[in-house]
Design goal:
Elements: E1 2-5, E2 10-14, E3 17-21, E4 35-38, E5 42-48, E6 56-62, H1 66-70, H2 75-78, E7 84-87, H3 92-113, H4 124-136, H5 142-154
Antiparallel strand pairs: 1-2, 2-3, 3-4, 5-6, 6-7
Helix pairs in contact: 4-5
């Protein structure tokens, strides 16, 4: 389990679920209770690091969520976004670990869904050589070999 405690909430990652917990004043501007999201619904992570004078934030964008379309993405938006948590500079390391974990999950999901590469087409010379071997082994007649060889050469 991975955890990061921020200024207005705490993030817990347990298996394939992210939960944003809000307690006390951290609930202001947010609905009561925890926000639980399946990792498989996360399409992007936006993070602004905390600086010496300003807090940072992390936000998770979900498939079909309004954050991708409607939010400009600044700190003021993060204060009321239910998918965002604000953090101080001293908490940066924990939030870096959360971001890395989620981004690795997204990358692995995309790598697993990528279409397998098609096997390269055999080289024309290799195909003719294989046909000749079949002819020499008696599998193909001379006429069948010639017809197939002509067919292959016409595709060039």
């Amino acid at each position: 389990m991975l955890e990061a405690k921020g200024h207005n909430g705490q993030i817990t990652i347990d298996g394939e679920w992210i939960t944003i917990h809000r307690k006390g004043l951290g609930r202001l501007g947010h609905s009561k209770g925890d926000k639980r999201m399946a990792m498989s619904t996360i399409v992007a992570v936006k993070m602004r690091p905390a600086g010496a004078l300003a807090n940072g934030f992390i936000r998770f964008d979900q498939m079909g969520g309004s954050s991708l379309r409607d939010k400009r993405g600044g700190l003021s938006d993060a204060t009321t976004d239910e998918n965002a948590v604000i953090f101080r500079k001293s908490q940066q390391g924990d939030f870096d670990a959360v971001r890395e974990h989620v981004e690795n999950f997204i990358a692995a999901r995309h790598a697993g869904s990528a279409a397998p590469a098609a096997a390269p087409a055999p080289n024309l010379a290799d195909q003719i050589k294989q046909l000749a071997e079949l002819r020499d082994a008696g599998v193909l007649s001379e006429d069948e070999f010639a017809a197939k060889k002509t067919d292959l050469l016409s595709r060039m």
